[in-house]
Design goal:
heterodimer; A: mainly beta; six-stranded mixed beta sheet; five-stranded antiparallel beta sheet; B: mainly beta; seven-stranded mixed beta sheet; four-stranded antiparallel beta sheet; 11 strands; 0% helix; globular
Chain lengths: 110, 116
């Protein structure tokens, strides 16, 4: 079983749509949780951290359920510029060793 | 540009040849990571340095792979006797040692390896 598993993509949605990505992780010792964004042929960049209490950053909302080992990302009012691959990430160990999921590709169309 | 830089950006080589990639992290960052990414997959952890010490190596890193970080600044990743399965994007990332695990790694643009 992969350490981090994500919804298979791609997600093709119209502008303005709300889209949700799900992710599960296998290691209950995972300490921290994040969503990274990777544009086509570019390097990954941190989108947001994920906290147990849930957190929001503008149109983006992240949720964590430690009991179910489940992470989600909700994007409201999708923009063309949101088109990218969204990587679910957990850390193991005390030094920012990031374990990435395979990513879910989002394509927002006019 | 004060970001993470990697060189070369692209490398095409024949099977059996040796290749070396270089990474220059953000200057004040003392943590350096190498990842490998293939098409349709997320980055896979290869190895991690804190200053000049290599503290962890993934089992993905066979004995043909070696990484160094002399003097705790730039790092090199060498692949000996390359195989077609080594074809991938090799990503370097750095971060600052901090009391809180922020999860933010700063990635370079990667070195794309094609083994013919």
């Amino acid at each position: 079983r992969k350490e981090v598993e994500q919804d298979p993509g791609p997600f093709n949605v119209p502008e303005g749509a709300t889209v949700a990505f799900n992710c599960t992780y296998s290691n209950s010792a995972s300490q921290s949780f994040f969503w990274y964004r990777q544009d086509c042929r570019k390097e990954p960049k941190l989108l947001m951290s994920v906290y147990s209490s849930g957190n929001e950053d503008g149109r983006f909302t992240a949720q964590l359920n430690r009991a179910s080992q489940y992470i989600s990302l909700l994007i409201r009012d999708s923009k063309l510029s949101d088109s990218a691959t969204y990587l679910c990430v957990v850390t193991l160990g005390g030094y920012n060793k990031l374990i990435f999921g395979a990513g879910t590709r989002l394509a927002v169309h006019p | 540009d004060t970001g993470v830089s990697q060189d070369p950006r692209h490398k095409i080589t024949k099977r059996g040849q040796n290749v070396t990639f270089r990474c220059d992290p953000i200057s004040e960052h003392n943590r350096l990571y190498w990842y490998r990414q293939t098409l349709g997959q997320g980055p896979e952890f290869l190895t991690y340095f804190q200053n000049e010490a290599q503290l962890e190596k993934s089992r993905l890193l066979s004995d043909r792979f070696s990484a160094e970080r002399p003097k705790g600044s730039f790092s090199t990743l060498e692949i000996q006797r390359t195989e077609q399965g080594d074809s991938a994007m090799y990503l370097c990332a750095s971060s600052l040692l901090a009391g809180e695990n922020t999860g933010e790694l700063f990635f370079g643009e990667g070195s794309r390896l094609t083994v013919l």
